């Protein structure tokens, strides 16, 4: 058998399988199974909450720790005197 005849037989076989699968998909048994699966999925989803509860906010660092880090940045020269004073005032103004 030549390559072309083999390829044609393969193509014909694949076409036949595809047609059989399409016919099965339209069968009453397959439709009933799909309806049952959809009903089960809907029932499972009905028990799930619509939205997730909001996540807890991350724990805030206490002021002392933040002021200490701010002081270290200022001492290392990463912050100017003005930047340090502004950030320090902002932290101290928080409730």
- Portion in helices: over 70%
Structural class: mainly alpha
SSE ordering = HHHH
| Low-confidence spans | none
Proportion of β residues?
A: under 5%
Care to describe what's here?
The structure is a single chain. The protein has 95 residues and is mainly α. The chain folds into 2 domains: 3-46; 63-93. It contains 4 helices and no strands. Helix 3 (63-76) packs antiparallel against helix 4. The radius of gyration is 34 Å and the shape is elongated.
Question: Topology of this structure?
Answer:
Blueprint: H1 3-25, H2 28-46, H3 63-76, H4 81-93
Helix pairs in contact: 3-4
Give a summary of the structure in a few sentences:
This protein is mainly α and 95 residues long. It folds into two domains: 3-46; 63-93. The chain has helices at 3-25, 28-46, 63-76, 81-93.
Short descriptors:
4 helices, 2 domains, 95 residues, mainly alpha
């Amino acid at each position: 058998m030549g390559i072309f005849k083999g390829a044609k037989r393969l193509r014909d076989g694949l076409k036949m399988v595809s047609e059989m699968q399409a016919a099965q998909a339209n069968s009453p048994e397959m439709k009933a199974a799909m309806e049952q699966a959809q009903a089960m999925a809907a029932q499972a989803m009905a028990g799930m909450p619509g939205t997730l509860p909001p996540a807890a906010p991350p724990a805030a660092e206490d002021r002392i720790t933040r002021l200490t880090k701010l002081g270290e940045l200022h001492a290392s020269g990463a912050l100017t005197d003005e930047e340090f004073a502004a950030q320090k005032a902002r932290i101290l103004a928080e409730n």
